[in-house]
Amino acid sequence: MIPTQPAGYRGRFAPSPTGPLHLGSLIAALASLLHARSAGGEWLLRIEDIDPPREQTGATAAILHSLVQHGLRWDGDILWQSQRSAAYDAALAALAADGHLFACTCSRRELGPGGVCQQNCRARRAPAGRPCALRVAVPADFVSRWEDPWQGTQYCALGRELTDFIVRRKDGLYAYQLAVVVDDAYQGITDIVRGADLLDSTPRQHLLQQLLGYPQPRYAHIPVLTDDRGRKLSKQNMAPALDDTAAPSNLRLALHYLGQPTPPAAADQVQDLVDFAVAHWSPLGLPRAPAVTAGQ
Ligand code: GLU
């Protein structure tokens, strides 16, 4: 069934439980919540727990606790990707039935830079019994184009610039690109606000939406927060976990990085700070690319 998009604004935050939230992820969550709430929209939460080898014990609980402590309240029930296998299988079956998938048996060593399949797997039938990844055959003429409020006009001739990408991994796990597209459609997401580190995923997601007959949400990518050596603040780079006991000052710092008006000194409760930020949300205040720097 082709999901229909709801009339109103519906945004989401979709963390992977690979570690606790840090300042960079708080900024992304806050921007997405403020954009949704200031439009009178909903804001949903999805836990992207489809990659057990990369997950950290306790990370989900820590993420939920941080969100609540920082006054970032989501609407409705949490969607857990670990419970969505049937939907991902159905999407894979639909893609396969339309001839959009092929099996790739390349080992890590055989893949070229950026994980490019170099063995011409697209053109041959995969030998039975060998573990294989499933890739999407990107149509040569596919073009992805969108107006990004913070990154400007984005254009990617995917068919020429990008290679056939993985939707199910060799180890049987579903790829992020597939799961995110299936779930954004399932949840009726109209607007995606996330970090610019995911900018190059958007054309792939556009392609999957087109192939699966899903509506295309609007995409907006906020500049990525980097440390003073220019490295993205990420769990992989050991960015410190948010101190939940300092939620009001974390929120003030996040608002500062988002170029938003400073809340009055009297606003010392998280709910007051979030309410002020929703009422004063000014997307134009956000720094445009290049990335802003933390720790200055
Ligand atoms: N789960 C992804 C992450 O934690 C984000 C997915 C998205 O916002 O599209 O980086």
How would you describe this structure in keywords?
elongated; Rossmann fold; 8 helices; alpha/beta; about 300 residues; three-stranded antiparallel β-sheet; 10 strands; binds glutamic acid
Layout of strands and helices, then pairs:
Blueprint: E1 10-13, H1 23-38, E2 42-47, H2 59-69, E3 79-80, H3 85-97, E4 101-104, E5 133-136, E6 144-148, E7 152-156, H4 158-161, E8 166-168, H5 176-186, E9 191-195, H6 202-212, E10 218-222, H7 247-257, H8 270-279
Helix pairs in contact: 1-7, 1-8, 5-6, 7-8
Bound molecules: glutamic acid (GLU).
What's the CATH topology name?
A: Rossmann fold
Named once each, the bound ligands are: glutamic acid
Radius of gyration: 20 Å
Q: State the distance separating the first and last CA atoms.
A: 50 Å
Percentage of helical residues?
A: 25-40%
Give the CATH architecture: 3-Layer(aba) Sandwich
Strand order of the largest sheet: 1-2-3
Q: Can you give the mean pLDDT? A: 90
CATH homologous superfamily, by name?
Answer: HUPs
For the sheet with most strands, the description reads:
3 strands, parallel
Query: What is the beta-strand fraction?
Result: 5-15%
How would you characterize this protein structure?
This protein is α/β, with parallel strands linked by helices. The protein has one domain: Rossmann fold, CATH 3.40.50. It has 8 helices and 10 strands. The strands form 4 sheets. It has a 3-stranded parallel β-sheet, covered by helices on one side. Strands 4-5-8 form a 3-stranded antiparallel β-sheet. Strands 6-7 form a two-stranded antiparallel ribbon. Helix 1 (23-38) packs across helix 7 (247-257). The N and C termini lie far apart (50 Å). Bound molecules: glutamic acid (GLU). Residues 14-16, 48, 180, 194, 198 line the site of glutamic acid (GLU).
